[in-house]
């Protein structure tokens, strides 16, 4: 089998597929509260286009899939998309990232369709603050979604916390406490400058060393663990006596580009080899031509830079490529 390998020797066996750029929330780090222009429905990849694309990709070693958005559960055919991909025998793992607003309603059908795992966004455990960060979300719906995910048997359940200075960094111990009685993985993620014009993000960026500082100040003992399924770039730890774990994802300060195995497909059909840079290629004209499609995907991988250089942006140094202007919701994270 020909594997998708770039000029730095990185084998790409993982793809994140955005199925919509729309979302029922407006998280402050993901999209602005107004002024967004969403894709017309006819420009969004159909279920058949996504599944046909994946039928080709699995022949080149892609075996892990994450369905993202926007909010993927807004798609009325999301269950059919999951079923179509999970039916491919080469696929070993298929997960979805969701804000969980509709998870109670759709969890059982998603499980039956072959979904194996869920990542749930949860940036505050305080109702009012959650509503502010998400610009209108309801915390209880997320908590109900987590309970439903446990009930139907998704495992592991991962909760994504984007740590934002001055907004939720005083809840670190509350999040850690959440792992005491639940077998879940809380993942603290650095605030990234994806699609942000200007430098305002730097004021809200916070190093994840803050997590360790909070543990030490509270007298909480923790140990590293390496057994979280699908842990990807996360460094994982467990508080002493806790059922669950917590992980740190440092895309900015301690990037994991050297081991990056990811491709991304946007909702309008563009393959992106790197989340941060603006280069992307339209695969849609070639879905019916496997050889030309794979030539395009390989070209995208061949052009993939060695590093995203977000840390250079943090230090106000000159970057080697042009950062993307797409917001996180338009790429799929």
Automatic annotation (TrEMBL):
<feature type="binding site">
    <location>
        <position position="27"/>
    </location>
    <ligand>
        <name>[4Fe-4S] cluster 1</name>
    </ligand>
</feature>
<keyword id="KW-0411">Iron-sulfur</keyword>
<keyword id="KW-0004">4Fe-4S</keyword>
<dbReference type="Pfam" id="PF04055">
    <property type="entry name" value="Radical_SAM"/>
</dbReference>
<dbReference type="Pfam" id="PF06463">
    <property type="entry name" value="Mob_synth_C"/>
</dbReference>
<dbReference type="GO" id="GO:0006777">
    <property type="term" value="P:Mo-molybdopterin cofactor biosynthetic process"/>
</dbReference>
<feature type="binding site">
    <location>
        <position position="257"/>
    </location>
    <ligand>
        <name>[4Fe-4S] cluster 2</name>
    </ligand>
</feature>
<dbReference type="InterPro" id="IPR010505">
    <property type="entry name" value="MoaA_twitch"/>
</dbReference>
<comment type="pathway">
    <text>Cofactor biosynthesis; molybdopterin biosynthesis.</text>
</comment>
<keyword id="KW-0342">GTP-binding</keyword>
<feature type="binding site">
    <location>
        <position position="97"/>
    </location>
    <ligand>
        <name>GTP</name>
    </ligand>
</feature>
<feature type="binding site">
    <location>
        <position position="158"/>
    </location>
    <ligand>
        <name>GTP</name>
    </ligand>
</feature>
<dbReference type="GO" id="GO:0051539">
    <property type="term" value="F:4 iron, 4 sulfur cluster binding"/>
</dbReference>
<feature type="binding site">
    <location>
        <position position="70"/>
    </location>
    <ligand>
        <name>S-adenosyl-L-methionine</name>
    </ligand>
</feature>
<dbReference type="InterPro" id="IPR007197">
    <property type="entry name" value="rSAM"/>
</dbReference>
<feature type="binding site">
    <location>
        <position position="192"/>
    </location>
    <ligand>
        <name>S-adenosyl-L-methionine</name>
    </ligand>
</feature>
<keyword id="KW-0456">Lyase</keyword>
<dbReference type="InterPro" id="IPR000385">
    <property type="entry name" value="MoaA_NifB_PqqE_Fe-S-bd_CS"/>
</dbReference>
<comment type="similarity">
    <text>Belongs to the radical SAM superfamily. MoaA family.</text>
</comment>
<feature type="binding site">
    <location>
        <position position="23"/>
    </location>
    <ligand>
        <name>[4Fe-4S] cluster 1</name>
    </ligand>
</feature>
<feature type="binding site">
    <location>
        <position position="29"/>
    </location>
    <ligand>
        <name>S-adenosyl-L-methionine</name>
    </ligand>
</feature>
<dbReference type="InterPro" id="IPR050105">
    <property type="entry name" value="MoCo_biosynth_MoaA/MoaC"/>
</dbReference>
<dbReference type="GO" id="GO:0046872">
    <property type="term" value="F:metal ion binding"/>
</dbReference>
<feature type="domain" description="Radical SAM core">
    <location>
        <begin position="7"/>
        <end position="221"/>
    </location>
</feature>
<feature type="binding site">
    <location>
        <position position="274"/>
    </location>
    <ligand>
        <name>[4Fe-4S] cluster 2</name>
    </ligand>
</feature>
<protein>
    <recommendedName>
        <fullName>GTP 3',8-cyclase</fullName>
        <ecNumber>4.1.99.22</ecNumber>
    </recommendedName>
</protein>
<keyword id="KW-0501">Molybdenum cofactor biosynthesis</keyword>
<feature type="binding site">
    <location>
        <begin position="262"/>
        <end position="264"/>
    </location>
    <ligand>
        <name>GTP</name>
    </ligand>
</feature>
<feature type="binding site">
    <location>
        <position position="30"/>
    </location>
    <ligand>
        <name>[4Fe-4S] cluster 1</name>
    </ligand>
</feature>
<comment type="function">
    <text>Catalyzes the cyclization of GTP to (8S)-3',8-cyclo-7,8-dihydroguanosine 5'-triphosphate.</text>
</comment>
<feature type="binding site">
    <location>
        <position position="260"/>
    </location>
    <ligand>
        <name>[4Fe-4S] cluster 2</name>
    </ligand>
</feature>
<feature type="binding site">
    <location>
        <position position="66"/>
    </location>
    <ligand>
        <name>GTP</name>
    </ligand>
</feature>
<keyword id="KW-0408">Iron</keyword>
<dbReference type="GO" id="GO:1904047">
    <property type="term" value="F:S-adenosyl-L-methionine binding"/>
</dbReference>
<feature type="binding site">
    <location>
        <position position="16"/>
    </location>
    <ligand>
        <name>GTP</name>
    </ligand>
</feature>
<dbReference type="InterPro" id="IPR013483">
    <property type="entry name" value="MoaA"/>
</dbReference>
<dbReference type="GO" id="GO:0061798">
    <property type="term" value="F:GTP 3',8'-cyclase activity"/>
</dbReference>
<dbReference type="InterPro" id="IPR013785">
    <property type="entry name" value="Aldolase_TIM"/>
</dbReference>
<dbReference type="InterPro" id="IPR006638">
    <property type="entry name" value="Elp3/MiaA/NifB-like_rSAM"/>
</dbReference>
<dbReference type="GO" id="GO:0061799">
    <property type="term" value="F:cyclic pyranopterin monophosphate synthase activity"/>
</dbReference>
<dbReference type="GO" id="GO:0005525">
    <property type="term" value="F:GTP binding"/>
</dbReference>
<feature type="binding site">
    <location>
        <position position="121"/>
    </location>
    <ligand>
        <name>S-adenosyl-L-methionine</name>
    </ligand>
</feature>
